[in-house]
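Late entry, written up from scratch paper. The run itself happened at the end of the previous shift, but nothing got recorded in the book at the time, so transcribing now.
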Amino acid sequence: MPDYALMNQYLYEGKATEVREMTEKAIDDGFKVNEVLNEGLIAGMSVVGEDFKHNVLYVPEVLIAARAMKAGMSILKPLLVASGEDSMSPGVLVMGTVKGDLHDIGKNLVLMMSEGAGFEIHDLGVDTSVDKFLEKAKEVGATIVGMSALLTTTMPYMKRVVDGFKEAGVEGTKLAIGGAPVSQMFADEIGADGYGADAPSAVSLFKELAPRAGQ
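Output as recorded:
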């Protein structure tokens, strides 16, 4: 049995080489991909998320831990895809900073932590138009579309995205928003399905919104 507690600890400390090596050894020893993913990587990243939420860890440490998680995922991802077990993820997340806004630190943090929670992620970057959100959501069968904004001047564009999805008749995709100037009240006003106050809250929201979560 792999020492998952040690793997969790290495991930927490951001030791990418060790996480990668332990992941590789666990697979070579015949352990199931999903077990290594859940017990070794997702469990470790969930502790990072909780400690970030309670100000035990800060953004730099989370980014280093996320890099370690990606090192392990580089071993597991091809195996998950090849076996078809990639569909075991809670859902497919498409995320971008809305048009007119070039801030991406918050968005990147949410994406990293969402990947750590098992979501399939697609990053649209910054300055993202309604058309780009729609095109990518349809292409990958998005479970959730996340929109980020840091400027009050770009907040109204979030409503344009929500309206765009309604006009396009896209069904089964939940729309979530986040960023310093937005709130639950604003999410309700524009017809979004949810609001995440910070990265851990956003991941919790995504799990609630994703129909496959918890299955």
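Strands lie at 92-97, 120-123, 144-148, 174-178, 194-196.
(Scratch paper discarded after transcription.)
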